[in-house]
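User: Please fill in residues for this 256-position structure.
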């Protein structure tokens, strides 16, 4: 596994934008690939660093990194969240749960717009919400009024396909629903999706505290991503030159 740390380099510039060095921790080869993508296509410079997978080892290793901010991806969700809370007073820690919840919420907004619906008048079904607990607060903060939750334990009595017939969008973090006629299906799959919000979240430098205490900031990021999405995609391109600035502007507005 890898841990992700970020160091601000105020003197570095890319087209006039401050560059943040991100030491990115990810499991397996994905860490290096993610770091290359962020460095090549965003104002960030990213470096992969290995860390232990257990919670105690993860916290100790990340605390020892010479970094101002950390992005934890590829780690067990519970371990990553525990480390995020343990380190919140010392450095900025984002997890894949943060950034994936933002990306999925953005994709929901795009899918609804293309169906002529808004979060306020649409019906959303979230499958296996325990797989991504932050998603619910972010969807609610984005103005989603009607959300149905489906748990895998309900499958025998309430098949997911039956419930999906009556909704506009199915958000499926675990890939249980087969796409087809009916509702739009939003699911993880694009490995770039969890990286999209990071440049904007970090453009103004690191902040301590628990990011998940402010789902309105995540929702603002999602709206910014949705507004940048091309007509043939559910999410914007990581290389979009406006990505970092638009997300950063949304973050600043939500925090003000």
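Assistant: Residues filled in for all 256 positions:
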């Amino acid at each position: 596994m890898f841990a992700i740390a970020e160091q601000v380099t105020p003197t570095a510039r890319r087209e006039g934008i401050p560059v943040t060095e991100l030491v990115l921790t990810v499991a397996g080869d994905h860490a290096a690939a993610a770091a290359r993508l962020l460095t090549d296509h965003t104002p960030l410079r990213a470096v992969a660093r290995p860390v232990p997978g257990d919670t105690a080892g993860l916290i100790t290793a990340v605390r020892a990194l010479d970094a101002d901010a950390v992005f934890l991806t590829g780690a067990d969700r519970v371990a990553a969240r525990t480390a995020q809370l343990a380190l919140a007073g010392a450095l900025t820690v984002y997890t894949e749960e943060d950034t994936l919840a933002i990306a999925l919420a953005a994709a929901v907004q795009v899918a609804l717009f293309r169906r002529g619906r808004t979060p306020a008048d649409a019906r959303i079904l979230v499958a296996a919400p325990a797989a991504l607990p932050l998603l619910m607060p972010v969807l609610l903060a984005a103005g989603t009024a009607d959300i149905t939750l489906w748990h895998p334990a309900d499958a025998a009595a309430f098949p997911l396909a039956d419930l999906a017939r009556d909704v506009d969008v199915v958000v499926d973090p675990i890939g249980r629903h087969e796409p087809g006629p009916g509702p739009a299906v939003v699911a993880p799959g694009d490995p770039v999706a969890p990286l999209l919000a990071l440049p904007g979240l970090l453009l103004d430098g690191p902040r301590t505290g628990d990011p998940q205490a402010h789902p309105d900031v995540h929702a603002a990021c999602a709206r910014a991503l949705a507004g940048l999405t091309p007509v043939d995609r559910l999410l914007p391109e990581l290389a979009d030159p406006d990505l970092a600035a638009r997300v950063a502007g949304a973050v600043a507005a939500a925090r003000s």
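For context: The radius of gyration is 18 Å.
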